[in-house]
């Protein structure tokens, strides 16, 4: 369905003009590799209470990559509610959770429309699953809560002119951010949760040359690696030691079962790092 | 009141064992340990100082069986030792206080069974009065919740003689008690107590009226009386 009520931008890609790098090519290549340790996540900035009109809100920003033109992640989350359900909905003895993830039109290189596309709905469903395991739903009967996340910047390499190989890896990073930021906003809104859920991503990446064995890294940036073979995004409750959502994608050799568990372990590691930021942020909000 | 504000808590933080504390609002139990479920400050209320606390959740009506088991359990525990009884444990709760919250807004609360609410009558039918709940306990609600006072819940006696239009009129402010979470849209309310009923009414002429009896309001200007289910003044 096309959106006919607004003046839409061009439907296809609008790639800004790319000028040839004045600096030499070797310099650009040297920044290409990963600058962090394999088990280190990017630096994060998280703050609650940024939107005064919402019941709870939070803002999350990931440090942008060392390579110029690669944007980080910027997410803004608002929580509205608990509020009364619409008249038409049936009786619910617990809180009704609804999650909306929307990319800003300018968040990615491929311009996004105003209507939610399937990938955004998919992110919303994953987020709902992740949060449902953390919320104590029966504390709020007959009420609903809306969790709305705007992706302001969507973790993409804008400098490369070619089409993105696969957007899923970016979506995974965005989802892990969404989980962390929604958890902070829920705590800010005063909705009962069993724990502070946090998201993390681990990936199996191809080494710089073809004959080196693939390695497992956390918080991958696609532009920093030659090729990503598989990744998993995890929503993790640190004090309960439980996983509420697991999203796995990629092409892994079926013979190596260790790889799967290793990816999940590293995903949990990344979630635990995000959780530290989350806990510090919530403590700051109280002080 | 010997409340002690000790520390700040974030959701999922361990507060203590269930053998040491009773769970209050903002906490939950997992594997016989108490954890915080809200972001806020921890309050511990000792039972000696705690006044007869209002039940926090929906209260089950006492059946004869449950009354019997309660009695036997309380008598047996009092026989054993005073401190082992769950009533003697301090209650631990996590509250989001307004001064902690930097943007100084109140936390939304929901009407619960047993709460006394103030509401405004929206429309009446022969079977029920539809009201909008404005205040729950002492807090003004942010969201709008709809309530229903059915004709059988208006008063405790002579229920079959009750007529809704002789009890409420649209625009009246009513003090009522929540008796059920109701159906998908409405909370069910009752005014079947002396101190519940219409507390503010305007006459057909548009003047604020005075209560003159348990079922009448009088307009001070025109001198006419109108029928209402009048709340007994405190």
TrEMBL record, chain A:
SUPFAM superfamilies: Ribonuclease PH domain 2-like, Ribosomal protein S5 domain 2-like
Classification via InterPro entries: ExoRNase_PH_dom1, ExoRNase_PH_dom2_sf, PNPase/RNase_PH_dom_sf, Ribosomal_Su5_D2-typ_SF, RNase_PH
Entry GO CC: cytoplasmic exosome (RNase complex); nuclear exosome (RNase complex); nucleolus
Location in the cell: Cytoplasm; Nucleus
Region (Disordered): 1-31
Keyword annotations from UniProtKB, A to Z: Cytoplasm, Exosome, Nucleus, RNA-binding, rRNA processing
Predominant localisation class: cytoplasm
Record family assignment: Belongs to the RNase PH family.
Molecular function terms, GO-annotated: RNA binding
Name of the protein in question: Exosome complex component MTR3
Annotated organism of origin: Podospora fimiseda
Coiled coil: none
GO biological process assignments: nuclear mRNA surveillance; poly(A)-dependent snoRNA 3'-end processing; rRNA catabolic process; rRNA processing; U4 snRNA 3'-end processing
Domain Exoribonuclease phosphorolytic residues, every copy: 41-191
Taxonomic superkingdom: Eukaryota
Automatic annotation (TrEMBL), chain B:
SMART domains membership: S1
UniProt xrefs under CDD domains: S1_CSL4
Region (Disordered): 67-90
Keyword GTP-binding: no
Compositionally biased residues, Low complexity: 71-85
Cytoplasm is among the record's keywords: yes
Pfam families, sorted: ECR1_N, EXOSC1
Localisation per UniProt entry: Nucleus, Nucleolus
Domain S1 motif intervals: 114-193
One example of a Gene Ontology biological process annotation: RNA processing
Cited InterPro entries: Csl4, EXOSC1_C, Exosome_cplx_N_dom, NA-bd_OB-fold, S1_domain
Main location: nucleus
SUPFAM superfamilies in the cross-refs: Nucleic acid-binding proteins, Ribosomal L27 protein-like
One Gene Ontology term of the molecular function aspect: RNA binding
UniProt keyword list: Cytoplasm, Exosome
One CC-aspect GO term: nucleolus
PANTHER family for the chain: 3'-5' EXORIBONUCLEASE CSL4-RELATED, EXOSOME COMPLEX COMPONENT CSL4
Protein name: Exoribonuclease CSL4
């Amino acid at each position: 369905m096309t959106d006919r009520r607004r003046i839409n931008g061009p439907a296809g890609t609008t790639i800004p003009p790319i000028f040839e790098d004045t600096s030499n090519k070797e310099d650009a290549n040297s920044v290409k590799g990963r600058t962090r340790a394999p088990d280190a996540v990017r630096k994060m900035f998280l703050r609650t209470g940024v939107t005064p009109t919402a019941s709870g809100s939070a803002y999350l920003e990931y440090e942008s990559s060392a390579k110029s033109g690669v944007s980080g992640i910027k997410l803004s989350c608002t929580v509205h509610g608990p509020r009364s359900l619409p008249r038409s909905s049936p009786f619910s003895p617990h809180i009704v959770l609804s999650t909306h993830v929307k990319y800003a039109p300018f968040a990615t290189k491929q311009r996004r429309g105003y209507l939610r596309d399937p990938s955004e709905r998919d992110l919303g469903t994953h987020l709902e699953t992740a949060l449902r395991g953390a919320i104590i739903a029966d504390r709020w009967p007959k009420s609903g809560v809306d969790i709305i996340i705007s992706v302001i910047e969507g973790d993409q390499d804008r400098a490369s002119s070619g089409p993105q190989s696969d957007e899923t890896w970016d979506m995974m990073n965005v989802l892990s951010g969404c989980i962390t930021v929604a958890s902070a906003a829920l705590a800010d809104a005063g909705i009962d949760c069993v724990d502070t859920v946090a998201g993390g991503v681990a990936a199996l990446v191809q080494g710089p040359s073809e004959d080196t064995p693939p390695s497992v890294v956390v918080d991958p940036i696609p532009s920093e690696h030659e090729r990503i073979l598989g990744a998993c995004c995890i929503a993790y409750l640190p004090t309960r030691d439980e996983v509420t959502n697991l999203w796995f994608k990629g092409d892994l050799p079926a013979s190596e079962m260790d790889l799967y568990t290793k990816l999940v372990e590293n995903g949990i590691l990344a979630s635990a790092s995000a959780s530290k930021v989350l806990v510090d942020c919530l403590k700051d909000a109280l002080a | 009141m010997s409340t002690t504000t000790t520390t700040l808590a974030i959701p999922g933080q361990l507060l203590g064992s269930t053998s040491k504390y009773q769970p209050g609002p903002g906490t939950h139990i997992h594997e016989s340990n108490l954890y915080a479920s809200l972001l806020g400050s921890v309050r511990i209320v000792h039972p000696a100082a705690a006044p007869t606390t209002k039940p926090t959740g929906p209260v089950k009506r006492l059946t004869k069986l449950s009354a019997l088991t309660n009695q036997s359990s309380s008598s047996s525990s009092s026989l054993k030792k005073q401190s082992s009884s769950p009533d003697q444990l301090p209650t631990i709760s996590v509250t989001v206080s307004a001064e902690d919250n930097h943007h100084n807004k109140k936390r939304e609360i929901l009407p619960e069974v047993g709460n006394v609410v103030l509401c405004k009558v929206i429309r009446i039918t022969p079977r029920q009065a539809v009201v909008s709940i404005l205040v729950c306990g002492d807090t003004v609600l942010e969201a709008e919740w709809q309530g229903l006072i059915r004709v059988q819940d208006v008063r405790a006696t002579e229920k079959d003689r009750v007529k809704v239009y002789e009890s409420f009129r649209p625009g009246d402010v009513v003090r009522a008690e929540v008796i059920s979470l109701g159906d998908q849209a409405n909370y069910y309310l009752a005014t079947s107590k002396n101190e519940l009923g219409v507390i503010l009414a305007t006459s057909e002429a548009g003047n604020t009226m005075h209560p003159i009896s348990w079922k009448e309001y009088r307009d001070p200007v025109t001198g006419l009386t109108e029928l209402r289910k009048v709340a007994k003044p405190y």
